[in-house]
Amino acid sequence: MNGESITQIASRKDFHDAVRGALALAAESGASEICLVDSHFNDWPLNERGLVESLSKWASSRRRLFVVAHSFDDVARRAPRFAEWRRQWSHIIVCRSTDELEADQVPTLLFVPGLVCVRLLDRVHYRGTVSCRPSDHVECREAIDALLQRSAEAFPVTMLGL
Q: Of these four, 11, 43, 79, 120, which has the most CB atoms within 10 Å of its CB?
């Protein structure tokens, strides 16, 4: 994709392909930051071996992954590969929950600053965009920053019991 390109997402497969492609691009380019945002991540391909391999290729001590959700309740069960990868790389991952917002108010997006922004605008019909346009990157950054300000730490790596 060039600096001004935009591609339409028109199906669940398109969305999954866009997520895979954006994470592979982040790994190949050595991006310093990735942001994942969704209400619950139930329909993301987070348990796919190839996606976790892209994250592993991307990960290093000078990187940061922000994951923002309304709820992380099902992530470990639905995506055990991602949950295990997260345990290994917890020092570079920031997970936050947005309890202040209703689940349907949390956008669905993947943002790699300076490279790509994947936005799912209609979760029911899987309509959205994959964009390299600077204006879309500014919108994504502003949305993520607002969510981070209205969120709290969540999804601990280990659960302590009594």
A: 120
18, burial (CB in 10 Å: exposed 0-12, middle 13-18, buried 19+): buried
Report the predicted TM-score, pTM, of the whole model to 2 decimal places.
0.93
155 phi-psi bin (left φ>0, alpha ψ -120 to 50, beta other)? left
Check: CB of residue 121 under 8 Å from CB of residue 140.
no
For β-strands 33-38 and 64-69, DSSP reports them as parallel
The predicted-structure confidence for 69-93, as pLDDT tens digits, reads as follows: 999 999 999 999 999 999 999 999 9
In a domain, residue 162? The reply is no
Strand 127-131 relative to strand 116-122: parallel, antiparallel, unpaired? Answer: antiparallel
Task: List the domain range (segments joined by +) for residue 67.
Answer: 6-153
Determine the distance from the C-alpha atom of residue 131 to the mean position of all C-alpha atoms in its chain, rounded to a whole number: 15
Asked if residue 158 belongs to a domain, the reply is no
In tens, the pLDDT along 107-149 reads: 999 999 999 999 999 999 999 999 999 999 999 999 999 999 9
| pLDDT exceeds cutoff 70 at 102 | yes
C-alpha 128/C-alpha 120 separation (Å) is: 4
CATH code of the domain covering residue 93 = 3.30.870.10
